[in-house]
Amino acid sequence: MRVLILVAFILSSCSSNINLSGMKNLNFLPLERSSYKVKKGDTLWTIAIKSNNDPLRIAKKNNLKKPYTIYPGQNLDLRDLDNVKLDKKIISPSWKLPTLKSTDKKYEGSYWLIFNGKIGDPVFTVLGGTVVISGSSLPGYGNFMMIDHGKGYLSLYAHCDKLFVSKGQKVIAGQQIATIGSSEINRPTLKFQIRKSGAPLKVANLKFY
Roughly how many angstroms between the first and final C-alpha of the chain, as a whole number? Predict the structure, then answer.
């Protein structure tokens, strides 16, 4: 039941709540920004992705109550969000590496892993789950995939070439789901992130095998 509530919370179709609709102009906000003025079409989810923050922490910091409605012109306080305590404790499992072990990788900030491989190199799912996004629905991220692993975990795969699984399809850990591409980027790249309850996890703390 908790998983269903979380998925409904993240994937809500209401444009004023946390959802995956209307994702436009997703340029990252400066991480040091202390506040954000809500624009038309914004949701807590898109603001959280842009600023590498947790939508639940943003909501709690700004005393927003369910259904977490925001409105254009509203100023959201983004200060000290890491100190906003949530009820759930994050315990990260071990993850399958999302591409070949030989592929060069680097950190982009604290929350993204960048793999610079070759066009056509395999992309693997890091854990079993259900595909919730598959396609070019997130501007700036090319062919994009998001997989729900249950217990609040989501994995994100950006700039893919070919996508081999569709929305709603079940996948297992280590299954090839795509190939590395250069969609909406100038070199073959897999941009990868894991989120827990909406918040990005620090890649330095993730365990891959």
Answer: 30
* Cβ–Cβ < 8 Å for 52, 200: yes
For tokens 């992309």, what's the residue? 123
**Cβ distance 36 to 51 under 8 Å?**
yes
The length of the chain in residues reads 209
Residue 159 confidence (pLDDT) above 50 = yes
Q: List, in order of start, the domains of the chain with CATH numbers.
A: 2-83 (3.10.350.10), 94-208 (2.70.70.10)
Contact 36, 49 (CB under 8 A): no
pLDDT digits (tens, 9 = 90+) for 172-190: 999 999 999 999 999 999 9
With 0.70 as the threshold, say if the pTM is over it.
no
Q: Are 97 and 209 in contact (CB under 8 A)?
A: yes
